[in-house]
């Protein structure tokens, strides 16, 4: 695979990656808050 092809596919996937990262971060934060409250 060429670097351009990898870069293009990554750029197209980028917004999805950000959404997944934020979802995971939110999930972790919820777990931390639950543990802190217990």
Short description:
The chain is mostly helical.
Topology:
Blueprint lengths: L2 H35 L1
Number of strands: 0
Radius of gyration: 16 Å
Number of helices: 1
Q: Rough shape?
A: rod-shaped
Taking the sheet with the most strands, its summary is: none
Order of helices and strands: H
Low-confidence residue ranges: none
Category by helix and strand content = mainly alpha
Provide the number of structural domains: 1
Q: Report the average pLDDT across residues.
A: 82
Strand content: under 5%
Helical coverage, percent range: over 70%
**End-to-end span in angstroms?**
50 Å
What does this molecule look like?
Keywords: Membrane, Transmembrane, Transmembrane helix. The chain crosses the membrane at residues 18-37. The chain has 38 residues and is mainly α. It has one domain. The chain is built from one helix and no strands. The protein has one helix at 3-37. The longest helix has 35 residues, at 3-37. It is rod-shaped, with a radius of gyration of 16 Å. The N and C termini lie far apart (50 Å).
């Amino acid at each position: 695979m060429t670097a351009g092809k990898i870069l293009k596919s990554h750029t197209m996937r980028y917004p999805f990656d950000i959404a997944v990262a934020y979802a995971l971060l939110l999930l972790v934060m919820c777990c931390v808050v639950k543990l802190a409250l217990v």
